[in-house]
Amino acid sequence: MAILAFVMFVGPAAAQQAQEPAPEAQVAVNPQDPYENWNRKVYRFNDTIDRWALKPVAQTYRTFTPDFIDRAITNFFNNLSEVRNFTNSILQLKGESAVVAAGRFTYNTVFGLGGLIDVATAFDLPERPEDFGQTLGYWGAGSGPYLMLPFLGPSSPRHLSGLGADGFVFPSLWDEIDSPENYYARALQIVDKRADLIPAEGFISGDIYIFVRNAFLQRREFLINDGKVTRDPFASDNDEDLMLDDF
After folding, report:
1. Residue 222: in which H helix or E strand, if any?
2. For position 244, what pLDDT does the model report?
């Protein structure tokens, strides 16, 4: 599951227009991004892969896939994540969220043709995303410094630990899919998510590295606090303060 972080947070094709950072000696170190010089290099590496490989495939997928099929594919993969949402809701002692996750999975699987139709939202059961990174934050674990990882995209020590636990430790419906079908499904999920992010690229402006970092930090803060942003994690940057749901 960790590979999805790359799709969710990799920069768009316009990244070559981003401002180059000033020499390191002239830039005050951001306490949340002490490895900015290295992170920017990794960001450019990820963006190159996105521009030349992932985004063209996603654009083709978006062009030829009917909207109702695209939505059904997104719903199907979202439904698989309800097991993760349920597990982490239990670990965070959030009984209501656990019931919502179980209800969503049941409704969408039984009445939504195996998850292809999101009937649970129509029943006033919107998704409540939970992951082990959020669980660690709930119990007081610090985020650690911002990290831009090759292929995986924006992260932090806490976020990366959560991805590992969700992907390899806790039960997942992905475990029920045999190889090589598992790899085909993963590839489809990545392309589908990248295609869904294409419209959001119009919101990006300024230094794209900072924009992606800010969106990631704010989104994580938003999720860990269940929608209550008690502290703007990048207010000192005096940059865009934008919450993108897909981020």
Report:
1. helix 208-224
2. 46
Q: What is the pLDDT of residues 166-181, one digit of tens each?
A: 999 998 888 887 788 8
Residue 92 Rama label (left phi>0; alpha psi -120 to 50; beta)? alpha
At residue 147, the 3 state secondary structure works out as: strand
CA-nearest of 128, 108, 127 to 119 is: 108
- What single-letter amino acid sits at 112? G
Those residues with Cβ within 8 angstroms of residue 2's Cβ, 6 or more apart along the chain or in another chain: 152, 160, 163, 164, 167
pTM of the prediction?
A: 0.81
Place of tokens 């939970």: 130
Q: What is the pLDDT of residues 99-149, one digit of tens each?
A: 999 999 999 999 999 999 999 999 999 999 999 999 999 999 999 999 999
| DSSP per position, 10-79 | ---GGGGGSPPPPPGGGSPPBTTBTTHHHHHHHHHHHHHHIIIIIHHHHHHHHHHS-HHHHHHHHHHHHH
Burial degree of 218 (CB within 10 A; 0-12, 13-18, 19+): buried
CA atoms within 13 A on the CB side of 204: 25
C-alpha span between 4 and 83 (Å, rounded):
17
